[in-house]
Specification:
- It is a single chain.
- About 65% of the residues lie in helices and about 0% in strands.
- It is an all-alpha fold and about 160 residues long.
- It starts with 10 loop residues before the first helix and ends in a 17-residue tail after the last helix.
Length: about 160
């Protein structure tokens, strides 16, 4: 499959992508654990059907030391015993924050996340969810191909 559009071919898209990459780097430097961030990025990308982001974040997480077992179980995290309560709360918030047409984020999901993360981490978590959803939409709309990503190719936090 060929991409419909190459982001860096126009100055507007290139500037927008640079701003998004800068936001991603800011989030990678937050106190929200990087493994949690990668799990969130992966789960949102699975929900949105963004193959290029699934490829990227699976590889980035593995490169950072995430186990293949946990990566394979992200889509079925509710039934899996390999995730912490904090990670489960983040994944629930991710699912509800990604599928907002289904009713948005419940008070219960928010309270559960707030039980595990302080305000700085919650701000980062919400921002990671928002940013990966933006990346997913850009990549799905323009049909970016998946499979060739190499860890570190685009820097951290995309």
């Amino acid at each position: 499959m060929d991409a419909r559009f190459t982001y860096y071919d126009t100055s507007v898209a290139a500037k927008f992508m640079q701003a998004m990459q800068s936001a991603g780097k800011t989030l990678m430097g937050s106190t929200l654990p990087v493994p949690t961030q990668e799990l969130v990025r992966l789960r949102a990308s699975q929900i949105n059907g963004c193959a290029v982001c699934v490829d990227m974040h699976t590889k980035e997480a593995a490169h950072a030391g995430e186990t293949s077992q946990r990566l394979h179980l992200v889509a079925a995290w509710r039934e899996a015993t390999v995730f912490t309560d904090a990670e489960r709360a983040a994944l629930e918030l991710t699912e509800q924050g990604t599928s907002i047409a289904a009713g948005g984020v419940t008070d219960e999901a928010w309270a559960n996340a707030a039980k595990h993360y302080d305000d700085e981490q919650l701000a980062a978590l919400v921002s990671v969810i928002a940013l990966i959803n933006a990346w997913n939409r850009m990549n799905v709309i323009t049909q970016q191909p998946a499979g060739a990503y190499q860890p570190g190719q685009w820097g951290s936090g995309d």
